[in-house]
């Protein structure tokens, strides 16, 4: 089924072109430059050459207004269905970001299910309001009702219609090329998004592994920290014990230091005493030597005296022995005389006894 050039255009694009042709000016403000800018300049020149401000009357194009209303209604529904990205706390998906980027960069768009920015819809809504006001102002013959082509209701020659159709075809081709480029960019961006999702998945997996490793590390660190804390407490206890021992040792050291000072004083006193005793010993030795010499002299003198006494005693002893012998001899002679006397006494006694006995018998 063959379509004419005006049927291939979207209702919004056709309304823009028709409004620019009716007003005799360029396209509405807010559209991007590039190929669209060149088409605007060509349409301005053509509209000026055609002289649309003549007294030509056209029939009312009611179907176009209906299409515009339906398209505006669909666009409003689509705009209402667009998620409010600003209210999502910065958590837009990759597809939404890509769709918003591509829709902002498109100079023309069709009435489709692709979400578009609210700024574009604001411009188009204002344009449609101006178009409806102009239609009410111009009357029922402002737009054609023909079902073949809207150009048939305008006072145009065949060459001018051909030029307009050529411009429309060029614009359609340009838009198709641009749409293909945007599709290609969309596919590239989609591939990049998929790759980024893979990278993000790997990154999330790596982050999860890192978090798990970090948790294990934290657990190990906690255990090590507890162990180190216990060791620190033990070390502090040992340190306190060592400090107490050190304080006791220092106190003992101070005590021993005092005792040592006392010992040093005693040592000095003892050294003095020892020196005094040494001096006294030397003096006593000197006295001893003197006494020894004097004693030796005395001994020698005593020995001489003893020798003399012994000699004298020996002489006296010899004399005494001689006198003793003499006396012994006297004693012996006296004992003999005594025995002789005793014998005589016994004999006389016997004689007396005999006489007494005889006398008694005689009496």
TrEMBL record:
Keywords: Coiled coil, Cytoplasm, Cytoskeleton, Phosphoprotein
GO cellular component: cytoplasm; cytoskeleton
Region (Disordered) location: 23-49
Localization: Cytoplasm, Cytoskeleton
Name of one Pfam family that matches: TACC_C
Entries under InterPro entries matching the protein: TACC, TACC_C
UniProt feature coiled coil, ranges: 172-245, 274-358
Protein name: Transforming acidic coiled-coil containing protein 1
